[in-house]
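Changelog entry: the Acetylpolyamine amidohydrolase record was regenerated in this release. Current contents:
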Amino acid sequence: MKVLFSPRHALHAPKRVMRLGAFSAGRDVPERAEQLLATVRAGGHVIVEAAEHGRAPVAAVHTPEYLDFLETAHREWTALPGASEEVLPSHFPVRGMVGGYPRSVVGRAGYHMHDQLAPIGPGTFDAALASANLAADAAARLLAGERVLYALCRPSGHHAYADMGGGATYLNNAAIAAQFLRQRMRRVAVIDIDVHHGNGTQGIFYGRDDVLFVSLHRDPVDYHPYTVGYAHERGEGVGLGYNLNLPLPAMAQDAAYLDALQIACRRIESFVPEALVVSLGFDAHAEDPSQGLALSFDAYRAIGERLARLGLPTALIQEGGYAVGNLGRCLTEFFSGFEGAA
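Regenerated structure tokens:
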């Protein structure tokens, strides 16, 4: 399998996040990507350099105001007397009561970030652009006739909306890949297998019928992102029926997950897409610190097999997975299942 990777991911090295009212070390450490890279190298997969696609694929998904904020926020923030090393919003405006767009970076930080799990450091925007470029290049290669690409993206993307970041994400890599594919394909499906609901991806495509979004995740009733990801959310307007959420109970195991995956894949098959984008998270594993679901390594092999049987040109976009020591095996099992069934 061809693997797209950028060393620029290491420019993003967040120092701390706010969790449960206290500062703690973030889980999105550079070692995550390095461990996955070592795994694909050891497995003999071909690591290729991504072509540079510029900012157009990103601008096709994210608003100009948001992109400007991401690019300038750290510089403006650290120029303020007494500011922290990284941008962490101190207030969050109620969207229904917003009367204008703030000029201050303090106001914009709250406007454009939906939690305190995505600090912005000096290299965050460059790392996020490089990550997004991997997703865009995976899509470009599918359009050129390749069948499957793995974009080893870091930072992840599926919690990022068109104009908001959060949940350790800044630019929505999966949405960028799907939108890129839409340049020449009429219908594209996105399936998110990260333990957390892909709320940003859902938000981007919620009113559209050309991109089907399907997400398998821990029930948000008591889990991040808490207020979105419920089964009754089916899309709106022309997008009604083109959003499928399959929330699972806490610490659900392989059998329940694979049953839900069958429902997801049947929905994708009925949509008849021309390509598939997979938000490939490994944080549903039983040993992940996210402690949302309890999948085994064997489950990832089975997931890979089932997705491959869809028979679609596929862009695999790396999302979460924070147990650094077992990420390699999760990826190995997934690849084994996917390539064995392809």
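Strands lie at 2-4, 17-19, 22-24, 46-48, 148-151, 188-192, 211-218, 243-248, 275-280, 314-318.
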